[in-house]
Specification:
- It is a single chain.
- The chain is α+β, with helices and mostly antiparallel strands and 190 residues long.
- 34% of the residues lie in helices and 28% in strands.
- The protein has a 7-stranded mixed β-sheet, with helices on both faces.
- The radius of gyration is 15 Å and the shape is globular.
- 40% of the residues are buried.
Length: 190
């Protein structure tokens, strides 16, 4: 990929499980840290529309042709509204990676899904569909699942887009914006 690429970082708003929906924000960042655009959409808490709604948000954007990569803050948004990163990448024609600060505990996730959802197997299959890989950073490692891009190239993109700390700037910025939308002021770590 080119030196200065545009990455869309997506994060969800703080929510409670009594909420019907959660906002999602996309921050389009030109590496390493120039914010070019912000977009938003909504998804159902614990629903099944995150893949579709993210794809629609991307396709509707006037910046669509400039987006080189999508970074998601985790594989699920709005609770367990799991993003099918393979389908998302195919639908929008852009590589997609989910990024987490901590290695997901698949056994705990499976147990939580089994307790809460009749369709837990389908959700768990999506969560475990792509291998989780560790990426070393200058600070703590991060964990990724990716489609549409090789692992070596993804690590390079992560390095180019990480200004400070472990998380790439597009996710960090999306987190700040969506938290401020919901709470009036940004807080916490993505």
């Amino acid at each position: 990929m080119k030196e200065h690429i545009r990455i869309l970082g997506i994060d969800d708003s703080p929510f409670s499980f009594e909420d019907e929906s959660a906002e999602i924000v996309g921050a389009l960042v030109r590496t390493p840290n120039y914010i070019e655009a912000v977009m938003k959409s909504e998804i159902d808490v614990d629903g099944w529309n995150s893949t579709r709604n993210v794809a629609e948000m991307v396709r509707a954007s006037r910046y669509r042709e400039n987006i080189s990569m999508i970074f998601l803050d985790g594989i699920a948004l709005g609770g367990f509204n799991v993003v099918d990163i393979s389908k998302l990448s195919e639908d929008v024609g852009i590589p997609v990676a989910s990024i987490s600060r901590k290695r997901p505990d698949m056994e705990s996730i499976r147990i939580a899904l089994e307790k809460k959802f009749d369709d837990w197997k389908e959700r768990f299959e999506l969560i475990t569909k792509n291998e989780i890989k560790k990426v070393e950073t200058e600070h703590n490692p991060i964990y990724v699942q990716h489609v549409g891009i090789g692992f070596a190239e993804l690590k390079s993109v992560i390095r180019k887009s990480t200004v400070r700390g472990a998380l790439p700037e597009p996710i960090r910025v999306a987190h700040l914006i969506v938290t401020a939308f919901k709470r009036g002021e940004s807080y916490g770590r993505a």
